[in-house]
Design goal:
The chain is built from 25 helices and 7 strands. By secondary structure, it is mostly helical. The strands form 2 sheets. The chain has a 5-stranded mixed beta sheet. Strands 1-2 form a two-stranded antiparallel ribbon. The N terminus is likely disordered. Keywords: Membrane, Transmembrane, Transmembrane helix.
Length: about 600
């Protein structure tokens, strides 16, 4: 007889059949339409460009253009970035392909720039639909129709407030958010069906294929499935086996579909490579075999089988990719950490961000902390234990990642909408049932506000030392620098120069790639350490030494933005350096100003022949 015990039931997402009341496609479509309308309303009136404000959005467009111009599918080298030979990027063609196809379709009806603008507007808005669908489904599975509506409201606010879904945002983070929402919805399936867990496994494999940021979260997903199988045994055999098989199959297909044969044996820790492929396939296959062969054993037998499998996988990690246990950015040159990474907000730890901007901490961490507290409270009370154990694990891992790098906060904030939405729905129900109980009403209002990251952002902006005047001045200054130095009109004189190599601050690099045919030494990507370090040494070195660096890197043009933060930091660090001299108006003989840019926001120079 298969082993079944009453104690196993709480780890199921729900003991009862799925509740479908109120879970309609019409409701989800309405929320998606509202979210898209709000995104258009808050972004289009203020848009000055059809590409997103993030450097990654522009670089993605450059990569897509290269693909459409004939660069090989397997060739992810950005030949116009860095030193001679270019820079091998760590992104996925799975994101480039749909954007390129959209541009191709629209180009049948309008000219190329308009086709790009339409494609870049449509792509992020399209992704709103799966995010809201999966979050609505997950909310319904966790707490019913009321929880679904509360979750959808929180998710809509999250999507509108986050710049990753605004027109022009074509980096892969919006796709990752849709995938994580889908995995959560599948794991919360109340019927523990093999079909839903197969979908979760396929989504997990796809997440690994498009970016390494979600790898710790995918590891938590695998652990949740494995532990659920350990507890439930035969009742979860088909689901666990389906998850493991789908994960292994998807990663295998993705690996051979996007990795060049010449790189099959390479191990990289920031992209899909042999390391992630071997470990994910091995782990998925191990789960499939363990679930298929040992599910009918007693708990102790299943524990032993899982322990052996886990030990084998841990050993494989140490053999195949031991370096991937550390943060890939830890290997950066100290100079890059000082003058580049320290200014990248998403790469900061919680401690570093608290020192830099304590008022922003609530935005990144408060909703997840509240969600974790709600999950623990629900588990202690025995309410929807399985679902809340699952959410506790996922949010907990995402929160832990965000403590190391803030970029993980977008995933913890998204997932927090599920337990918080359920709790808000319960408080609203209780408040309506007892209208004279002021405490319930206040608790409902307080939790609703606290569940929204934007609330904490607003509260932080009003704290002493960060008044609205200071915020407005900072935003205006940032916008001014961006418009002055990265605008097409400022970079246009470069486009008229013969194709060559440009040295300039990293924040200008992607815009120069977009608007000109030149190669640039520096753009903010950790795989381009050689080019970025060369540009830093050029700025820090005295004019004579800087000339040697310029000629050694075959630089033909220098782009100098006096208002660039990194440029000013370099000039301050080395008052006798080239950038300090240029700020003082002292131009060495080997640099010839390009006519018309001598007093411009972006000053351009030709490197005279030796």
């Amino acid at each position: 007889m298969p082993e079944t015990t009453p104690s196993a039931l709480p780890l199921a997402a729900a003991a009862a059949p799925p509740r479908r009341q109120g879970m309609t496609m019409g409701v989800l479509a309405l929320y998606a339409a509202i979210a898209i309308a709000l995104l258009l309303a808050v972004s289009l009136p203020f848009a000055t460009d059809y590409v997103g404000a993030d450097n990654d959005d522009t670089m993605r467009l450059v990569m897509v253009r290269d693909l459409m111009a004939g660069q090989g599918w397997f060739d992810m080298t950005q030949y116009r970035l860095g030193l001679d030979g270019g820079t091998l990027m760590h992104w996925s063609r799975f994101i480039d392909l749909p954007i390129a196809n959209l541009i191709g379709v629209f180009s049948l009806f309008v000219e190329q720039p308009r086709a790009e603008a339409l494609a870049l507007a449509v792509w992020p808005l399209m992704l709103v639909v799966p995010v809201l669908f999966f979050m609505g489904l997950a909310g319904h599975r966790l707490g019913g129709a009321a929880a679904m509506h509360a979750t959808l409201i929180l998710t809509t606010i999250f999507v509108v407030a986050l710049n990753r879904f605004q027109p022009g945002s074509i980096d892969h983070h919006n796709v990752q958010l849709a995938i994580i929402a889908g995995i959560a919805a599948m794991l919360l399936d109340p019927g523990l069906r093999a079909r839903d867990h197969a979908v979760a496994g396929a989504l997990a494999g796809f997440a690994i294929a498009i970016g390494a940021e979600t790898t710790p979260l995918i590891g938590a997903v695998c652990l949740v499935v494995a532990l659920r199988w350990l507890w439930l045994g035969p009742a979860f055999r088909a689901a666990a086996a389906a998850f493991g098989l789908a994960l292994a199959a998807t990663v295998t297909l993705a690996f051979f579909a996007t990795v060049a044969p010449s790189r099959y044996t390479q191990v990289t820790c920031d992209s899909l490579s042999y390391g992630f492929y071997a470990l994910a396939t091995f782990g998925g296959a191990m789960l499939f075999l363990v679930a298929s062969l040992t599910s009918n054993r007693a708990f102790g037998g299943r524990l032993a089988a899982l322990a052996i499998g886990g030990a084998v996988i841990a050993g494989a990690v140490l053999v195949i990719a031991p370096g991937c246990l550390a943060n890939p950015l830890d290997t950066l040159d100290p100079l890059l950490k000082t003058f580049w990474l320290s200014g990248v907000i998403e790469a900061q730890s919680a401690v570093a961000q608290f020192r830099l901007e304590p008022a922003s901490i609530g935005t990144y961490y408060a909703p997840a902390l509240l969600a974790l507290a709600v999950c623990l409270w629900r588990i202690r009370r025995g309410e929807a234990v399985g679902g809340h154990v699952t959410m506790l694990a996922l949010i907990g891992v995402a929160f832990a990642v965000s403590l190391i790098q803030i970029r993980g906060a977008i995933f913890s904030n998204l997932l927090s909408a599920l337990p918080l939405g359920f709790a808000i729905a319960d408080l609203r129900r209780a408040s309506n049932a007892h209208p004279r109980n002021l405490g319930l009403g206040l608790a409902f209002a307080a939790l609703t506000l606290a569940a929204v990251p934007a609330t904490w952002a607003l509260a932080g902006a009003l704290l002493p030392g960060r008044s609205q005047e200071q915020l407005q001045a900072g935003l205006a200054g940032t916008a001014k620098v961006r418009a002055a130095c990265t605008a097409q009109s400022s970079i246009a004189p470069l486009a008229n120069e013969p194709a060559g190599v440009v040295s300039g601050p990293s924040n200008l690099g992607v815009q120069i790639l977009r608007y000109t045919p030149h190669r640039v030494l520096s753009a903010p990507y950790h795989r381009n350490q050689g080019g970025m370090l060369t540009e830093l040494h050029i700025g820090l070195s005295n004019p004579h030494q800087a000339e040697a660096f310029l000629r050694g890197a075959h630089v033909t043009l220098v782009a100098f933005c006096p208002d660039d933060t990194q440029t000013r930091d370099l000039a301050k660090a080395e008052p006798e350096g080239l950038y300090a001299d240029l700020l003082k108006g002292r131009v060495p003989d080997y640099l010839g100003p390009i006519a018309g840019t001598e007093n411009a926001a972006l000053q351009l120079f030709r490197v005279r022949p030796q």
